[in-house]
Amino acid sequence: MARKSLIAANWKMYKTPDEALTFVQAFLPLVANHTRDEIALFPSVTSLATVVHAAAGSNIQVGLQNMHYENEGAYTGETSPIMLKAVRATHTLIGHSERRQYFAETDAIVNKKLHAALAHGIVPVVCIGESLVEREAGETASVLKTQLTGGLSGIAAEQAAPIVIAYEPVWAIGTGKTATPQMAVEAHRIVRAEVARLLGSEIASAIRILYGGSVKPENASSLLNEEEIDGALVGGASLKPDSFAAIVHY
Ligand code: 13P
Predict the structure, then answer these.
(1) Structural domains in the chain plus CATH codes
(2) Which of 51, 107, 167, 215 is the 20 to 30 Å CA partner of 9?
(3) Which residue intervals of the chain are DSSP H helices?
(4) What is the pLDDT of residues 53-72, one digit of tens each?
């Protein structure tokens, strides 16, 4: 089954609302009529409504970089699924390695967030990936399996269709070191096999697995032309309209 690729921009803690608006205004014409792939922007929370508004009616989808699992409550600094939907955002990243590393996000928390996203009809992009130490110790497969088993716990195949997985090796994020297409494909095959074990082969063959980690215009086509790679989650190279558009047009 042909999977439609998703090319997504994770802006991390960059861009004010004005800067985000300037980006969208410059970016929209560069990708107008682009239907081969889905395109999504993940701005910071203060720019979310601005970006949704600026992209309304276009082929651009918009989501949060992180979302709490409760609808509301005494959780200072957090953003709920209801808040995300109220501004008409549609997607959320879950379990980005920076959330895991700096904010102690565990597979159990990822799992709660995934359940919440699916319950609210929000498209979840679940991020997984091994560190350099884990890769060098030969633990890549076991780390990915553990993250998937924990993250997808209690999810039924019937509800799993919207899930997107992003494979982002931690050692490739923001380092300029990209996984080779062969390394990415190998990891994606491990992920797909584990998804098959957890959710069945039908979901596994349809689920989109994105690659993230130093994706840039120069390496996008070699990665994205691999059949096993169903899109990209782009950090640094997504901050400039020309650069992100070049990746979309890989
Ligand atoms: P870079 O593209 O800056 O390496 O970041 C990747 C990433 O973390 C996307 O979520």
Answers:
(1) 6-248 (3.20.20.70)
(2) 107
(3) 17-31, 48-55, 81-86, 97-102, 107-119, 132-136, 140-151, 181-199, 201-206, 217-224, 241-248
(4) 999 999 999 999 999 999 99
Nearest to 232 by CA among 157, 143, 168, 156: 168
Query: DSSP class of residue 9?
Result: E
Each residue of 81-138: pLDDT tens digit? 999 999 999 999 999 999 999 999 999 999 999 999 999 999 999 999 999 999 999 9
Which distant-in-sequence residues (6+ apart) come within 8 Å of 48 by Cβ? 62, 64, 84, 87, 89
The C-alpha atoms of residue 70 and residue 79 are separated, in whole angstroms, by 9
In the chain, the amino acid numbered 82 is I
The radius of gyration computed from the CA coordinates of the chain, to the nearest angstrom, equals 17
Given the residues 38, 68, 91, 96, select the one marked as catalytic.
96
Q: What is the mean pLDDT of residues 32-37?
A: 96
- CA gap 61, 247 in Å, rounded: 16
Distance CA 47, CA 37 (A): 24
pTM exceeding 0.90: yes
Q: What is the DSSP string of 216-241?
A: -HHHHHHHHTSTT--EEEESGGGSSH
Does the active-site annotation cover 96? yes
How many Å apart are CA 116 and CA 104, to the nearest integer?
19
Contacts for 201-207 with beta carbons within 8 Å, 24 or more apart? 202/157, 203/157, 203/160, 203/161, 205/1, 206/1, 206/3, 206/161, 207/3, 207/160, 207/163, 207/164, 207/165
What is the Å distance from ligand 1's center to 10 Cα? Answer: 7
